[in-house]
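Handoff note, outgoing to incoming analyst
You'll be picking up this chain. Sequence as last confirmed:
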Amino acid sequence: MFKIGEVAKLSGLSVKTVRYYHDVGLVKAIKADNGYRYYRQEQVTHLRFLGNCRELGFSLLQSQQLLSLYVDKQRCASEVKAIATEHLTEIEQRIEQLQQLQQSLTSMVNCCRGDARPDCPIIDGLAAS
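Most recent structure output, in case you need it:
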């Protein structure tokens, strides 16, 4: 049994994150009479799993779904793949949007002389409707 500080270190998460995951029901702690929360190794593993999900950018809901599938030894890999595929599609769309932003900003920066004059294509571009 581990106290929350130990669990945070072992899982690589902050104490605040461990508390939050407990409060939203992703992991369950054993509350002792003294008010301390105690966790078993299984919860440490689950927290580490959730941390990995979040590092890969999965939403909290997706992370919860993946954790449920992780725990379910009768799971279908197709369910896991569907969640990961959906997330991958979202990432690809964000990358495309960021590339478009990069092109637009690069164009504005390249058009700006950056001298002492008040005219500035960057300001004009930002003010455009």
